[in-house]
Every structure is written in C-alpha cells, then in structure tokens.
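Figure 2 data, in text form.
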Amino acid sequence: MNKSILIVEDEIKLANLLADYFKQDGYDPILIHDGEEVVPWLKNNTPDVMLLDIMLPGKNGLDLCKEIRMFSNVPILMVTAKVDEIDRLLGLEFGADDYICKPFSPREVVARVKAVLRRSQPVTPIESQDTLNLDEHRFTVTFNQQNVILTSVEFQLLKPLASKPERIFTREQLMTNMYSDQRIVNHRTIDSHIKKLRKKLANISDGKDWIQSVYGTGYRLVL
C-alpha cells in the first residue's frame, strides 16, 4: 500500500510539481491550498507524513503545526522561504520533525520526507526499567498507566537514553540517532528538544526529572 503525503502549499504550480514527484516515487499525495482547511481534514484523515508551508492564506503554518500537535503525531516537515524563520525552526520548537528552505529541489524534498519516515518507522516496543515504557507504534511513553505522545524526533532522542539508563550520551551521539542523514545541527537543537521532552515526561511522573544533564558531555536518563 502506498504511503500518503499531505502537501499544504498555496503555490498551486509548486504543489502540483511536488505531487508529481511523490507520485513517481509511489506516494499518494493530497493537496490543500488554504490553512483553514488543514485541521478539519486531519481530524478525519491520517496521512503518513505532511509538508506544511509557513506562509498560507487563512492560517499560517506555524500556528497550524502547534494546533496539530495537540491531537496528532503525524510527521511534519515545515517549508519556509523566510530566512528569519530558520533560527526558530532549527530548534523545531513548534513540534515539527524537520524543515526545508525554499528554493529547493523536489528530489531533495522527497529524500527528506523518506528520512523522516525512516526515523518514524514502528518497530518492536522498547521497555525500560520499572514502569517507563516506550511504544514506537504510537510514539508514546507510558509511566504508571499515564502516557504522553511525542513527536518522532523527540522519540528518537529518548530511545537511546531509555534503552541504556545511566549511560551518558554525547550530543553528537544523540544527533546521529535523531538525524540519520548526517546533517549538521547546532547543539542548541538537542537542548531545545531535551527541554520539551523533560516537560512532557514530567507531566506523567508528578514532576520527576528523568533526564540529567552532564556538564560538558551530554545527557543520561536516571530512573
């Protein structure tokens, strides 16, 4: 069965071009050109991945991304032509899994989507000590019968930490696990994700801080 991709782009020619490239690669593209139509569509449909442009009529991509993360963990790749948005997107503080800058090659977009989907592939659930459980089928973490949904990037960040509690992982090791395409990412990106991850885990563990910073080195999970 082909994977489906939701392309949210108001430049119709560009959207159609991307759709053609994804069709050639075996995807089923769905096109939306107005930001107001995105959330209602997603509440009734579940694509495998989505491309979300920032500049949209009706509702902009950043607001949409934050809203979508309230009910869905669909992998999201943000698309921007605004240089001043890049620093904000580097931290992916809006819950996105990756970003792409215009102008771009459609082949690059297809490759980046594939990389995000590879990171998101469900495998056998990983169970750590005690009652902290990771489920890659749903990108959830469960503790004492409470669970929280993570983005695919957050999940890939937590996975090595949870698989080997007490072991210290450097930022470089964590970045390699999060981004298999070997891109260069600022250390602040890891720190930004760790901050969000700590907050999510604290919400299901009565404020417990699972992730410990190791000065000058990286992070480890302390149970």
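Caption note: Confidence is low (pLDDT under 50) at residues 123-129.
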